[in-house]
Amino acid sequence: MSNDKVVKVALIGNPNTGKTSLFNQLTGLKQKVGNYPGITVDKKQGFCKLNDTIKAEIIDLPGTYSINPTSLDETLVLDTLLNEKKNSFPDVIIVVVEIENIKRNLLLFTQIKDLKIPTILVINMIDQMKRKGIAIDVKQLEEKLNTKIVLASARKNVGIEELKEVILNYKKLDTSSIAKITDRIDEDYFTKLKNAFPEFPLYKSWLLITQNKEFNFLSDEQRKLVLKFREDLGCIKRYQHKETILRYQIINDVLKESFKVDKSKATDLRGILDRILTHKIFGYVIFALILLFIFQGIFDWATYPMDLIDGAFASLSSWVKTVLPPGTFTNLIAEGIVPGIGGVVIFIPQIAILFTFISILEETGYMSRVVFLMDKIMRKFGMSGKSVIPLISGTACAIPAIMASRNIENWKERLITILVIPFTTCSARLPVYAILIALIIPDKRVLGILNLQGLTMMALYLLGFTAAIFSAILLNKVLKIEGKSLFIIEMPNYKIPSLKNIFYEVVEKTKAFIFGAGKIILAISIVLWFLASNGSSKFKNAEETVIAQIESTQLSKKELQKKVASYKLEHSYIGYMGKSIEPIIKPMGYDWKIGIALISSFAAREVFVGALATIYNVDNDSENTGTIKQRLAAEVNPETGEKRFNFPTGVSLLLFYAFAMQCVGTLAIVKRETNSWKWPILQLSGMGVLAYVVSSIAYYILS
Amino acid sequence: MQDILTYIALGLAIGFLVKKYFFKSKKKGKCDSDCGCN
């Protein structure tokens, strides 16, 4: 295989034309997803065997409506097609159009065809033809478009072999242009342009001068010429309009004879469904019910596999301790590495369930209706309709939610969404909230029905959403990022979801999480374990010191072990770190022990309960929550003689965890998605300052 | 022996984090000039 000849194929098309299904059919599991250098737009590449000696390297370019870019994704398509020196410059292009939206989809095809790169036209979703009453004269269409057409249904694996055959013979494809812009717009102007860049096809030269960006692959002389042509901007704009009109005239002429739609033969439910799903009242009600179902799934169904994973890793830790000889490395494996890997793997069910639902909503075509429905509301806050799903997903976990924001085309809206997602109450905050609420809020009923503790929990969820919305408004005013925010959303046909596409999507997202954020979480777990398991000479002599201290007291072996563990923690490196930050956290009402829990939970919020459990000599066992509660409730502040976890400290801690960015995994994902440390640092410091100020004020007022 | 292995694991973890936080990974192959990575 390694000596095979490789044909580079670029897959291009409007969004929702079934491009990804075609990519999946062509490449199967022989695909990889990465980022384009310098930006974070998904780069999908895969291989497809054409015959015994030739294979195709397929690059799935982001969906685009036109070759004139309005978003990061579309800029990338243009960059790939204009720079012949680029590694990814294709030998042949496949333009995918959808049978029902062929007229609009063909605009992109005519533009690409004029670049004089061998181009194949794939008309996808032909299985819908009969139902929609559509008839095509393929031969006539091929003649008029000077290309080879393949009729396909990617989801049903129809036309794939024929397409491979056409790719194999790509050198025989006609590369003549379609739109004669020279004769039909302004002959003098375009002749001058053609003479200025004789080495390029005319349409490529036209694109070079119409785009407001620098092309580094041009020579100095060519750049000067480009700038000279750009001086007459009015002329360029006028001719661009004429070009679009000309292209649609050509498309209309081409389709007039070769593409017929007989509505009387159509059996379409789409109109009725659209009216219901985008209705100004029912639309929102249906969406709310679907969300309720999704969260039921994420919280309830994920619990079983998560418990299994948790139990399996706990058993693995114990097994490691029994099998390996005792020592520090065994402890590192059993207490650091295994729980560290477990801390990554445990999120897989939530991520898989969430992305299964998102994929189903996308595959059925419902997601486009949701985006349309929500866009008006979200736009007021500087976000887009497409921000809705990531924001709601954030209540499960910010990591997949941030990954889900990739389909927001506008960079500013996407960035704002990424920056505010961590305010939404994720599931890792739940154990923290649960124990603190149980400590400071009485278990009473309001109006005889509503549980006060439950209401507090709901208030914290609302607080998270409110913080996200206000931050978005602020960021929208502060961030000076330019970008055209056009809201074009394709309303695709309703479809039965393809299990294959859902499977690939879930596998891809899960892999991205495990190998992206997972490595960082594991590394931090090792460092935290080391800091908590080592310390000064006092740490090393903990057992002797504790035995000497409690000489007269009768303690069981288990109680003695807990006392030693507590003493060790106090004199471990992380214990010293807790003490060193005590003056800083004092205004919030915390002592060094809470400080340790804060530092430990910097890796992940849920560590807070485990750290407190260790500090207060209690086993970290969910069944013993009552014991943790009792111990925390009994803890006394030696300075005031009052309870350590009183109402002011408890509220302060709740507010701290509501606003602070205590999650390394999220920071790692934000770094990966924005390709810069600037944004995660801004997020960390902004949320940290907000949490510190709000918690301190709350503590000051309440105490 | 166990101590040595522990310090190796710790060193690898710290090295990985330092590399991740402070050094940009070098891109393999040719870096195209017009995609924002220069």
Could you explain how this protein is built, in words?
- Chain A has 703 residues and is of the alpha/beta class.
- Chain A folds into three domains: 260 residues, Rossmann fold (3-Layer(aba) Sandwich), CATH 3.40.50.300; 121 residues, no CATH class; 202 residues, no CATH class.
- In chain A, 60% of the residues lie in helices and 8% in strands.
- Chain A is built from 34 helices and eleven strands.
- In chain A, the strands form three sheets. A seven-stranded mixed sheet of chain A has the order 2-3-4-1-5-6-8, with helices on both faces. In chain A, strands 7-9 form a two-stranded antiparallel ribbon.
- Chain B has 38 residues and is mostly helical.
- Chain B contains one helix and no strands.
- The longest helix of chain B is centred in the first third of the chain and has 21 residues.
- In chain B, 13% of the residues are buried.
- The C terminus of chain B is likely disordered.
- Chains A and B meet through α15 and α23 of A and α1 of B.
Task: Give descriptors for this structure.
heterodimer; A: 703 residues; Rossmann fold; 3 domains; B: 38 residues; mainly alpha; 1 helix; disordered C terminus
